[in-house]
Amino acid sequence: MTKLAIFDVDFTLTNRETLVEFYTFMLKKNPKLILYAPFGIISAFLFIIGLFSAKRAKENFISFINGINEEKMKHLTAEFYKKRMCKIFYSDALDTMKKFKNKGYKIYLISASAEFYLRELYRIKEVDKIIGTTFLIKNGKHYNKIIGKNCKGDEKVRRLKESLKNDGIKVDFKNSYMFSDSLADLPLFNAVGNPYLINYKKNNPYNIKVLNWK
């Protein structure tokens, strides 16, 4: 059976929020996108106070992608990876991936962030599978509408199982690992025999082992 080493992305593989990094990257290329900032900030606040779901807040924040064609987006995300994303990795995360890959594990990245730019993480040679929140592509153009659910919590487990079924992979979950900075990933923590929190400073009622990555 296959053993997995599963990694969250934001604040687990990276030391920053990738969506904010992507917006900052896009803003430098097109300063007019600053007009989307107040909308994103308000949406984030409404999410924090419980008036917006995470899905709605994310859709609002990422509305700056609306109308970008697929070919242009491929060039943008490739440039984003080279100029920003590859510079915010925890070296300990990359080292851990290499260690598990050498032991025969498959490396899965599962994140609530947008899959269309997370795909650039396949440039990390150890990565076998990337699962993220999927956004609408219609008539060859990207839009801010999430397809299905925000890939968070229980949805991460569902998407993982769906992917494994489609690929015909049977997993030894007892001897698999999960790394994340957040207890929002408790469903995935509960699915594996070896859960680890990354750089976690808050209350840890489940006594999950904490690793400090740099």
TrEMBL record:
InterPro entries, sorted: HAD-like_SerB (IPR050582), HAD-like_sf (IPR036412), HAD_hydro_SerB1 (IPR006385), HAD_sf (IPR023214)
Entry keyword set: Hydrolase, Magnesium, Membrane, Metal-binding, Transmembrane, Transmembrane helix
SUPFAM superfamilies in UniProt: HAD-like (SSF56784)
MF terms (GO), sorted A to Z: hydrolase activity
Membrane spanning residue stretches: 33-54
Entries under Pfam families matching the protein: HAD
NCBIfam families: HAD-SF-IB (TIGR01488), HAD-SF-IB-hyp1 (TIGR01490)
Family indicated by similarity: Belongs to the HAD-like hydrolase superfamily. SerB family.
Annotated protein name in UniProt: HAD-IB family hydrolase
Organism: Clostridium lapidicellarium
